Amino acid sequence: MTKEKMRVGLFVTCLVDLMRPRIGFAALRLLEAAGCEVVVPSTQTCCGQPAFNSGDTRVARALALKLIAEFEGLEYVVVPSGSCGGMIRVHYPQLFADEPAVAARAGALAARTFELTDFLVSVLGVAKVPGDFEGTVTYHDSCSGLRELGVKAQPRALLAHMPGVELKEMAASEECCGFGGMFSVKFGDISTRIVDRKCDNILATGADAVVLGDLGCMLNIEGRLRRRGDERTRVLHVAEVLAGED
Amino acid sequence: MRSQAMFFKARAGDKLADRQLQANLGKAKSRFVEGRAQAVVDYDAAPGADFEALRDAASAIRDRVLANLDVWLETFEDKARARGAEVLYARDGAEICRLVVDIARRHGVTKAAKSKSMLSEEAGLNEALAAAGIEPVETDLGEYILQINDNEPPSHIIAPVFHKSKEEVAELFARTHHTPKKDDIAGMAREAREVLREHFMSAEMGISGANFLIAETGSAALVTNEGNGRMVTTLPKVHVVVTGIEKLVPTLEDFSTLMRLLPRSATGQRISNYVSVLTGVKGEGDLDGPEHLYVILVDNGRASLVGTEFEPMLRCIRCGACMNHCPVYQSVGGHAYGWVYPGPMGSVLTPLYTGIENALDLPHASTLCNQCGVVCPVKIPLPELLRKLREKQVDLKLRPWRERLALRLWGWVAARPALYGFAARTAVRYLNRRAGGTDRIRALRAVPDWTAGRDLAAPEGRTFRELYAERVGHEGRTKR
Which residue intervals define the domain 4Fe-4S ferredoxin-type in the entry (chain B) (predicted)? Predict the structure, then answer.
């Protein structure tokens, strides 16, 4: 590519920041390998989704405004999460429906915001990834990524570029894992029943790893698999698989 | 029906522990979910057919009605009256009961045969009839099973005994009918038919709901699979339709569009076994039909939703697809929701019809996965409506103060990057201490419900922002 490098803002998400920084670095590596100049605004915190889904729009708006200001100078915003990506892309414009000036800024940013695998495939047309994972994997389609952003074929297309990876689809891969943010805290027992069905479907494939694109689902599924005594199935973010070890 | 929705969490816990129920739910779920999926594939296979376009058309029809509900109601009223029906309005459940009892008394009714009607559940009509000395007999097989099981409430809007197994029904029949226990469904259905036939012949009044009201003809449309609806609406000399004011569609053409969606979304059928369009009283020379027809149009909270952010909920055609596809409903069944309507549509309707403060858990009893939204035949944005109800709870200060305080505090910190960074670093170190050198935390007091069922993987050890700042420092690069 001869044209100037694309300036891409990486929003790592609060859960990655807290629990799994390596996913943030994997996303960074993938974007750099694809030729982007990656900017990571150092003041980023949370997109506001927990407040939004809890019905506290005042807090959600404050955090949305903060994120918009941090990222609106960049060409694109890339997020290694379907639910945070969906928050920015789908819900930010709704949040400011009664403030046209902010809604316009939110809409402009929303149009340039992409879930990581969607960005790599749909915007960059990536056909080569640095990872060297070997084994069978099964893919869990996270709800927001799938039903808000249409992320379904993109991660599978990227995994297909990895010769060592064999994809074995699980039954009902599009069904929710039962996380639902605060839902799993408020209704832990119902959430456990739902994630049990997900675990059954994952284990039935016999895959070495379940791969997914959202940290919430990841913590929920991994936590339940381990509690059930399964120590074998790895639970990996798609960015980790695609980027390989640092 | 008195709402028990405030006890959702406790009731859900009981349902999760009920092994028989769990087995029954699993079987019923796959039948409906796979049925719908196949019906959509089959529909789209026909040249030029597009199920998505059909959903758009249907939701437009429903919106058209809601935009001028008063006009369509008047149209319906005029047309129905012209065919000899009496059209009455009921503001709430108590008024439904009063009107139906009055009608029954006027015609000297001692027994009323009922076809399925969710509005009669909203009103508690059976209790009111019984109290007035009129015997109500449910004739929909599922509703009949529930009635003879000590008036158990339905757990699903189209499959009232969704929660029961064949074996449980066989035992109930043997006990109630004093017959040998049967093990085949056909045999049990025959037995019920024999019992119900007596009632069809002797009831002086039939009570039904209506899936749709057709304005241009003044008709009530019934969509059923068992044929009891036809008996109830044609054999007794008096027929009473009890239905919601939002059930209107302008034309027969619109009705046929919605009929392409309703059975497919509900059960995966291309068409239900019976579709009845009932217009007016028995005419001269007609062999059957009621001599007296009453249509009771019920508000019970509906009109107050028109023009509000919750208006899209009134598009609902009661197919049950949202609950069939809901991971929460699939896990706890319908009774946990505590009122007439379960699943996502119920979690929206129950607080709106019975009071937001009386159903605080329901809007939160959803992962917002939007499986309901994508299967809804009339494209009701159910997760969005649930979220709006959560907003209402916050606005009305109905959330626990601890939760409100925690959210505000977290929001305040998250708006201050330096402070947030410190808090995140502190949290990570705390969690790691709790993991005690292992890769997981088995119990965490802050989220007891979470760790009761699953481990929490320990954090890596340092936050992304810490590590990134360090890396940028090392590389001597400046980012922004």
Answer: 306-337
